[in-house]
Design goal:
This protein is α/β, with parallel strands linked by helices. It contains 5 helices and 9 strands. Helix 1 packs across helix 5, helix 2 crosses helix 4 and helix 3 packs across helix 5. The structure holds pyroglutamic acid (PCA).
């Protein structure tokens, strides 16, 4: 059994719930394929998100990391390809901080690419007729920030493992026009995890 760290977020902005945190709670401590899932809910706070992830990495010693976050305006599962070195919040974080036109890491690389097998994941979801896309922008808010910092962390340490980010659409309970129930989103995440060797 190998360890997989699965992260999500709690409520933020005007959203009273966040499907990603709910899914992390559902899948925490379960086994999917040959993975033991370690779930963690990260804070939607610029200064706290990476220290919390780092702590989770130390605690769970993962051999794969899948981070998830809510993409309010999207209607499909978004397998993120790339995180950019840019922080430009269109909304405040949960501690009221607002940051514009800054680099996440002033001396860092411009971008890091997901090390998840996103093409294979997309083909798997396609076969299951689960609506999904490969996305070329994780935004410029907390989700892009944590994807960037996580991938940088492993790259600098020369640790070669599958790690990346998946944006999920809102569930029907959160946004009534959504076609997704929490169980559908959770099923999609489980199927993505099974793709990992
Ligand atoms: N989505 C936000 C941050 C927290 C979340 O669930 C984002 O896309 O950056």
């Amino acid at each position: 059994m190998k360890n997989l760290l699965l992260t999500g977020f709690g409520p933020f902005h005007t959203h009273p719930t966040n499907p990603t945190g709910e899914i992390v709670e559902l899948l925490d401590d379960t086994h999917i394929g040959h993975w033991k899932i370690h779930g963690r809910i990260l804070p939607v706070v610029f200064e706290e998100v990476f220290p919390e992830l780092e702590k989770a990495i130390e605690e769970t010693k993962p051999e794969a990391v899948i981070m998830t976050g809510l993409a309010w305006g999207r209607d499909v599962i978004s397998l993120e390809r790339v995180a950019i070195n840019c922080l430009d919040s269109i909304r405040k974080d949960n501690k009221g901080n607002e940051v514009h036109d800054q680099k996440i890491d002033p001396d860092g690389e411009n971008a890091y690419f997901s090390t998840l097998p996103i093409r294979e994941m997309k083909l798997t979801l396609d076969q299951l007729e689960i609506p999904c896309e490969i996305s070329n922008s994780a935004g410029t808010y907390v989700c892009n920030q944590i994807m960037y910092l996580c991938l940088k962390h492993f790259a600098k340490a020369h640790i070669d493992l599958p790690a990346g980010f998946i944006h999920l659409p809102p569930d029907h309970g959160l946004r009534p026009e959504s076609r997704w129930e929490i169980k559908d989103l959770s099923h999609a995440v489980s199927e993505v995890i099974k793709v990992l060797k």
